[in-house]
Amino acid sequence: MIHKPWLTIVGMTENGWQAVPDNAKQLIIKAKHVFGPERWLEQVPSAASIKHLWQRPLSQSIDQIMQLRYQPVAVLATGDPLWFGVGTTFARLVPIEEMHIFPG
To answer: How large is the average pLDDT for residues 52-56?
Structure first.
């Protein structure tokens, strides 16, 4: 069974929110849950989403995100999330058809 994308992973750069592509911004704003480090979460405009700081160990946040499967979730990462980042972790857990990935 193929599901529509529910997970958006966005790589952030030093330029922060202003450098995020508009289509990625819309997906982040529409997400019910947004995960990431404090420096990225504080730049996301307030919306109806619930913001979650990365937990330590990171596997706790990964588990929480997987429990939210099929709800709109955004993950804010630093740089390219597929270059040894959180995107590679989710690529092992979630079919690519269920994700939007935007490198930083």
So the answer is: 93
Q: Of 18, 16, 21, 15, which Cα lies nearest the Cα of 36?
A: 16
Rounded to 10 degrees, what is the CA torsion of 65, 75, 1, 30? Answer: 110
Query: b/e for 11-28, b at 16 or more Cβ within 10 A?
Result: bbeeeeeeebeeebbebb
CA dihedral of 71, 84, 97, 99, whole degrees rounded to 10: 30
Among the listed residues 4, 41, 48, the one whose alpha carbon sits nearest the alpha carbon of residue 20: 41
Task: Provide the pLDDT confidence category of residue 2 given band limits of 50, 70 and 90.
Answer: low
Q: Indicate the SS3 state at residue 38.
A: helix
CA dist., res. 53 & res. 23, Å (int) = 23
Mean pLDDT of 26-54: 91
Distances (CA, A) of 100 to 10, 57, 72, 83: 8, 24, 11, 15
Q: Hey, what are 35's tokens?
A: 């995960």
